[in-house]
Design a protein that fits this description.
5-stranded antiparallel sheet; alpha+beta; globular; 15 strands; 263 residues; 27% strand
Length: 263
C-alpha cells in the first residue's frame, strides 16, 4: 500500500511575473537570462553586485496578490518538475544582523580575484576542463539574498524593511563553467546605468531558459478583456501549433482581477 503523501506548505508551481509585452515575448521566444542587481548586507559589511539569472516565486495562487503588485500583473506558472530538470534552486536567505553574512561577504574579496584568473586560464588552456571545486563555493553567493532589507525599484527606495523571504524566490543561474558568461557576477559599479546593464545583457543574450507547452500550468493577465488577445498570441506561436495544446492553455488562463477577488 502506497504511503499517503503529506500536504506541503509549498505549491508544485513556480511563477514568473512581468509586463504584458514581457509575457508575450516569453511565450514566443522563451526566458532570456539577464543581470539583476543584488545587495547583500551584514552587520558590518555590504556587497552590491549583479547576477545573471531568471527569477521565480514559490507561492500559491492565494499568496500572489502582494507579489503581483510589485512585479507585474502578467505571469506564467510552470511545474516544479520543469524547474528540477532545468536546475533551478531556491534562494538562501541570510540575516543582515548575523556574523555569517559578514563572513561570506569578506570571503568574496579573497576568492573572487582567483576565480577570475582561473576562468581566463581555462579559456586559453584546453588541458584544464573546469573550475576547481574549491573555487565553486562562490556559486553560493549567486543564490543569496537578505531575509529582510531595503526594497529598491526603478532606482528609488520603495520600502525600508521589506521582507524578501516572503517571495520564496527560486533562480535559474548559468553554470560557473558556462563560458558564454564572461562574468558570473558583476560589481555594481560596472552596471550602474541602463546602458551598462544593456551592454552586459547583450553579452549573454544567447543564453535561454526554455520550456515546452506541457510545462505550463497557468497563464495570468490583468483582466477578462485581455484573455482573447493572449489566446490569439498563443495561436500564432509556432511551438503551440496544436489544437489540443491551445485548448489546454486557454483553459489555464487566470486574471489578476480573479485572483484578487476570488482566490
Amino acid at each position: 500500500m502506497e504511503k499517503q503523501k503529506h500536504p506541503s506548505l509549498y505549491p508544485d508551481i513556480l511563477f514568473h511575473f512581468t509586463s504584458k509585452e514581457g509575457l508575450f515575448k516569453i511565450l514566443e521566444y522563451t526566458f532570456k537570462v539577464s543581470y539583476a542587481r543584488e545587495k547583500i548586507e551584514g552587520k558590518n559589511t555590504k556587497r552590491e553586485l549583479a547576477v545573471p539569472m531568471v527569477s521565480f516565486c514559490d507561492l500559491k495562487l492565494s499568496e500572489l496578490k502582494v507579489h503581483m503588485s510589485k512585479y507585474g500583473s502578467y505571469g506564467i506558472g510552470l511545474t516544479k518538475d520543469w524547474a528540477n530538470r532545468k536546475g533551478l534552486n531556491p534562494v538562501m536567505y541570510v540575516n543582515r544582523h548575523c556574523e555569517f553574512t559578514d563572513n561570506f561577504n569578506n570571503a568574496l574579496y579573497t576568492i573572487y580575484p582567483n576565480l577570475s584568473k582561473i576562468r581566463k586560464n581555462l579559456k586559453n588552456n584546453d588541458a584544464l576542463q573546469e573550475i576547481p571545486h574549491d573555487m565553486k563555493i562562490l556559486d553560493a553567493y549567486r543564490y543569496m539574498k537578505n531575509y529582510e532589507g531595503t526594497l529598491i525599484r526603478d532606482g528609488h527606495q520603495d520600502e525600508e524593511n521589506f521582507r524578501f523571504a516572503d517571495e520564496r524566490e527560486w533562480r535559474y543561474v548559468p553554470s560557473l563553467d558556462d563560458y558564454r558568461v564572461e562574468e558570473p557576477f558583476v560589481a555594481i559599479s560596472n552596471i550602474q546605468t541602463k546602458k551598462q546593464k544593456m551592454e552586459y545583457n547583450q553579452k549573454i543574450e544567447n543564453i535561454k531558459l526554455d520550456f515546452n507547452p506541457n510545462d505550463i500550468k497557468y497563464l495570468i493577465v490583468e483582466d477578462d478583456n485581455e484573455i482573447n488577445g493572449l489566446i490569439e498570441h498563443i495561436q500564432k506561436v509556432k511551438k503551440f501549433h496544436n489544437e489540443d495544446v491551445i485548448s489546454r492553455l486557454s483553459s489555464r488562463i487566470l486574471t489578476k482581477e480573479q485572483i484578487d477577488k476570488d482566490i
